[in-house]
Specification:
With 474 residues, this protein is an alpha+beta fold. The strands form five sheets. The protein has a six-stranded mixed sheet with strand order 1-2-6-3-7-17, with helices on one face. Strands 11-13-9-14 form a four-stranded antiparallel sheet. The chain has two domains: 3-206 and 379-472, 3-Layer(aba) Sandwich (Aminopeptidase); 208-261 and 308-373, Alpha-Beta Plaits (2-Layer Sandwich). It has 15 helices and 18 strands. The longest helix is centred in the N-terminal third of the chain and has 24 residues, at 3-26. Helix 4 (128-148) packs across helix 15 (450-473). Residues 205-363 form the Peptidase M20 dimerisation domain. This is M20 family metallopeptidase. Keywords: Hydrolase, Metal-binding, Protease.
Length: 474
């Protein structure tokens, strides 16, 4: 394979077609069902599907025998299924998603979630990097191989529309399409992160996640705070007490031992190496306010905290009026949205049930406490890389990035990985992505680093070609 030619082909396709398509995709507010319960009525999800379907169809004529179908199971978000014939009996699955996180506040002037802006080599806007580019990058890789006549295994592209809500629709589609998907020996996922933009980063693990809405109610209606304070316990104070069952308020450490696992020694060693490669970029990639510092200066501990240890984030609040409307009232209730990341090998469903029991039992003062469990996805720990894949990744990183590949766990969750890991225990996994420093997925000023998108597409093409080669030698 001519790697320079592959580089030119993919770079040109990104510049001429993929970036303009992503610009239009960013304009569509196709929020995941958890954040837009009326997604069917609003039609934005269908609009995003149509955009990707139309572009993909325009390219399939260059991939002989390729087929595309938008699969729709009743009552569920749609799924784009693409099948590209290959040589031999083996199968590669390439995965991504098209649903988005909600708007979030704090976007810089001139930027916005649904306002695509290109500044230098960055494309700003919600969903481009997380991960609307996946279908385009996957097809770009296969088109580049076809352009050179490089053989590859049969490839199946799966693009779901429910990932940001926990992928609760995906198991139904995987079961529905099981015969058509087959038994893949390689799974490629482009929905992950990268420690920097200088080298290829392979994700070795993903944390699971559980969480939901915690509500504490003390009154049927609000009352004068001067009359009630000191008699009626504050719902906010009770809520703080309940959260202290879970989290040490001084250190942020999660207290219950039931939410921990033994970290594999290999992952500890990889965390040390990642910390050495990244240095203070482990934490200074975040937009700290002046004078702020991370929870510890130990870089390895920071890496392990965000990849293998449980951590809590309070992501929303209800029951509190805005400041300009806040009178002297003891409020009847307080609700918060909890997002608890759990270790990769911890059972997410059991963690969710444990969390519900922990928060609801023995409510202080007999308050009405309810925890509405919304998500309980398990994480994923990558199987040992086969020698061929380890070598392929190393060569691809050197060829297209000019530096060695790096390995690190990610703190986020991709429920599909755990699901496929269970269904296809012998499959190899190439999990990577473009979410690097300051790309800020889910937050304000999210961006796609376009050069990294191009290089990741090249890596996918190269690895898919080497996957076929090693199978032909076997």
């Amino acid at each position: 394979m001519d790697t320079a030619r592959l580089n030119r082909f993919i770079s040109g396709l990104w510049d001429e077609e993929i970036v303009p398509q992503l610009v239009e995709y960013i304009r569509i507010p196709n929020k995941s069902p958890m954040f837009d319960p009326k997604w069917v009525e609003h039609g934005y999800m269908d609009a995003a599907v149509k955009l990707m379907e139309t572009w993909a169809h325009s390219k399939l004529s260059a991939l002989p025998g390729a087929k595309l179908e938008v699969v729709r199971l009743e009552g569920r978000t749609p799924l784009i299924y693409i099948e590209v014939p290959g040589t031999g009996d083996d199968t590669v699955v390439l995965y991504g998603h098209l649903d988005k996180q909600p708007e979030m506040t704090g976007w810089a002037e001139g930027l916005g979630p649904w306002t695509p802006v290109i500044k230098g080599d960055k494309l700003y806007g919600r969903g481009g990097a997380d991960d609307g580019y996946a279908i385009f990058g996957s097809l770009a890789a296969l088109l580049a191989l076809q352009e050179q006549g490089v053989p590859h295994a049969r490839c199946v592209v799966l693009i779901e529309a429910c990932e940001e809500s926990g992928s609760y629709d995906l198991p139904y589609y995987v079961d529905h399409l099981a015969d058509r998907i087959g038994n893949p020996s390689l799974v490629v996922c482009l929905d992950s992160g990268c420690g920097n933009y200088d080298q290829l980063w392979l994700t070795t693990s993903l944390r699971g996640m559980t969480g939901g809405e915690l509500t504490v109610q003390v009154l049927e209606e609000g009352v004068h705070s001067g009359d009630a304070s000191g008699v009626v316990p504050s719902s906010f104070r009770i809520l703080r007490e309940l959260l202290s069952r879970l989290e040490d308020q001084e250190t942020g450490t999660i207290k219950p031992k039931e939410l921990y696992v033994d970290i594999p020694q290999q992952r500890i060693e990889q965390a040390k190496k990642s910390a050495q490669v990244l240095g203070t970029a482990v934490y200074d990639k975040f937009p700290f306010v002046e004078g702020m510092h991370p929870v510890t200066e130990d870089l390895t501990e920071l890496v392990l905290n965000r990849t293998w240890r449980p951590q809590l984030a309070v992501t929303g609040v209800d029951g509190m009026p805005p400041l300009e409307s806040a009178g002297n009232v003891l409020r009847p209730k307080t609700s918060v949205k909890l997002s608890l990341r759990v270790p990769p090998t911890l059972n997410g469903a059991k963690a969710g049930q444990f969390l519900k029991q922990l928060l609801e039992k023995d409510p202080p003062y007999g308050a009405k406490v309810n925890f509405k469990l919304e998500k309980d996805g398990s994480g994923w720990n990558a199987p040992q890389l086969s020698p061929w894949l380890e070598e392929a990744v190393a060569k691809a990183s050197e060829t297209y990035f000019g530096t060695p590949a790096a390995y690190m766990g990610e703190g986020g969750s991709i429920p599909f990985m755990g699901m496929l890991g269970e269904k296809f225990p012998k499959a190899q996994f190439l999990i990577t992505g473009v979410l690097g420093p300051h790309s800020n997925a889910h937050g304000p000023n999210e961006f796609l680093h376009i050069p990294t998108g191009k290089k990741v597409s090249m890596v996918v093409a190269d690895v898919v070609a080497r996957h076929y080669e090693q199978g032909a030698k076997a």
